[in-house]
Amino acid sequence: MVDQSKIVEVIDLIRPALQADGGDIQFIDVDDGGVVTVELQGACAGCPMSQMTISSSVERILKERVEGVTKVVAAE
């Protein structure tokens, strides 16, 4: 089982970079397969680069720092 408190801790480290661009990120859930669901907010919500932000930054950092994270997806 993936430690949700560790996910939130790492997202809190990522948050200032997104806030600097007028956006934010909110942890939504993690499933049994290690798939983390997040919601991009503010300027990040409608940004065409949001999927790249999730995969190249958020996912990479969470995988490095939280054991069991397999993927990060945006909330529908």
Set out the fold topology.
Elements: H1 4-20, E1 23-30, E2 35-42, H2 50-65, E3 71-74
Parallel strand pairs: 2-3
Antiparallel strand pairs: 1-2
Helix pairs in contact: 1-2
Could you list some keywords that capture this structure?
about 80 residues, alpha+beta, GMP Synthetase, Chain A, domain 3, 3-stranded mixed sheet, 2 helices, 3 strands, about 45% helix, globular
> What radius of gyration results from the CA coordinates?
11 Å
Low-confidence stretches: none
Q: What is the spatial order of strands in the main beta sheet?
A: 1-2-3
Which percent band covers the strand fraction?
A: 25-35%
Q: Using the coordinates shown, work out and report the CATH topology.
A: GMP Synthetase, Chain A, domain 3
Number of strand elements = 3
Counted up, domains total 1
Helicity, in percent?
A: 40-55%
CATH homology group? Fe-S cluster assembly (FSCA)
Describe it:
The chain has one domain (4-74): Fe-S cluster assembly (FSCA) (GMP Synthetase, Chain A, domain 3). The mean pLDDT is 92. A 3-stranded mixed β-sheet has the order 1-2-3. The chain starts with a helix and ends with a strand. The protein is globular. Helix content is 43%, strand content 26%. It is α+β, with helices and mostly antiparallel strands and 76 residues long.
